[in-house]
């Protein structure tokens, strides 16, 4: 097998494409021949040693992938060789083969392409857990999605619309706003025009007729958090999803008091481990929604697995709409 090996987590440039022994699965594992793997923001952080999970060195990055099972380890009863699955295990995806925990593998139904499957679990599980479980989103409520043209943002638009909500998508260009509208957003905000320290609050107020959004989905953080929280509706729920802009914001705690609002943490990774039955039920719901055409990953482009460094450069430019996927 071949894989991108991280022996020194100082950044993307240190990754090397190397030939490695093809491993045999241990107890509870399966060996996959990887068909496709997607890029996620944590994949960049982990090779820079900036992510909360720090795997032992050396490791193969690539948190999310899809492929065909070649061999199963001891104790694996629900999966078999030849079966196609998707998996989000945190590492291992940027190569030709990997060992995956059988418990984390999502069996793929017929007609679920590998490229879509490799771009599916993280963004839809995160967004569904956030909006439906943590925010208890109801039909008719208004959701403001920040970073709406990115991977989790595009998933959040689709899941909120499937739940019957009104969606305001905020992103950084007119082109991205148009894309969000195509995905179902009812209104858009270009925050290059309506900046956080400028007219953003006025535009949110205008689009919500002074009420504010019931739910805010925020994978961006930074300068957006305080002005957006100040705009939230009474009993609003502010979903802390991530900090793609870099800085982790600090909010004055009088704001949730005055708004009767909640700051709600979203950590799908720990939810999946602490509440595996609830997570498995959620994944079945998401697979059914995919089959009905209610949700579908937005994949901007696919690249050969050998072009991982170029893919990271594209992702780092913030120009990506949806997801980048590497294919073998």
TrEMBL record:
One of its GO terms (molecular function) is zinc ion binding. It holds the Pfam family ADH_N. SUPFAM superfamilies: GroES-like, NAD(P)-binding Rossmann-fold domains. Residues 11-326 form the Enoyl reductase (ER) domain. PROSITE patterns: QOR_ZETA_CRYSTAL. It comes from the Bacteria. This is NADPH:quinone oxidoreductase family protein. The lineage of its organism: Bacteria, Pseudomonadati, Pseudomonadota, Betaproteobacteria, Burkholderiales.
């Amino acid at each position: 097998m071949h894989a991108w090996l991280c022996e020194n987590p100082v950044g993307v440039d240190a990754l090397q494409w190397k030939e490695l022994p093809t491993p045999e699965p241990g107890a509870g594992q399966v060996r996959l021949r990887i068909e496709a793997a997607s890029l996620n923001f944590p994949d960049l952080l982990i090779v820079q040693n900036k992510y909360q999970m720090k795997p032992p060195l050396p490791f193969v990055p690539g948190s999310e992938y899809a492929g065909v099972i070649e061999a199963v380890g001891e104790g694996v009863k629900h999966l078999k060789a030849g079966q196609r699955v998707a998996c989000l295990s945190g590492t291992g995806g940027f190569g030709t083969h990997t060992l995956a925990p059988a418990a984390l593998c999502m069996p793929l139904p017929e007609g679920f392409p590998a490229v879509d499957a490799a771009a599916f679990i993280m963004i839809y599980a995160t967004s569904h857990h956030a909006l439906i479980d943590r925010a208890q989103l109801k039909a008719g409520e208004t959701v403001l999605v920040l970073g709406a043209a990115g991977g989790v943002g595009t998933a959040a638009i689709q899941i909120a619309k499937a739940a019957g909500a009104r969606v305001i998508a905020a992103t950084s260009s007119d082109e991205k706003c148009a894309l969000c509208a195509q995905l179902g957003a009812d209104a858009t905000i270009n925050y290059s025009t309506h900046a956080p320290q400028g007219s953003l609050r006025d535009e949110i107020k205008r689009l919500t007729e002074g009420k504010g959004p019931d739910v805010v989905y925020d994978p961006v953080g930074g300068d957006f958090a305080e002005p957006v929280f100040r705009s939230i509706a009474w009993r609003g729920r502010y979903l802390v999803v991530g900090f793609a802009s870099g800085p982790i914001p600090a909010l004055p705690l009088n704001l949730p008091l005055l708004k009767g609002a909640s700051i709600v943490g979203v950590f799908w990774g720990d939810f999946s481990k602490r509440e595996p039955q609830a997570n498995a039920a959620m994944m079945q719901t998401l697979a059914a929604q995919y089959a009905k055409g209610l949700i579908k990953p937005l994949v901007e482009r696919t690249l050969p697995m050998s072009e991982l460094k170029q893919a990271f450069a594209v992702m780092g430019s913030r120009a990506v709409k949806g997801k980048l996927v590497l294919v073998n």
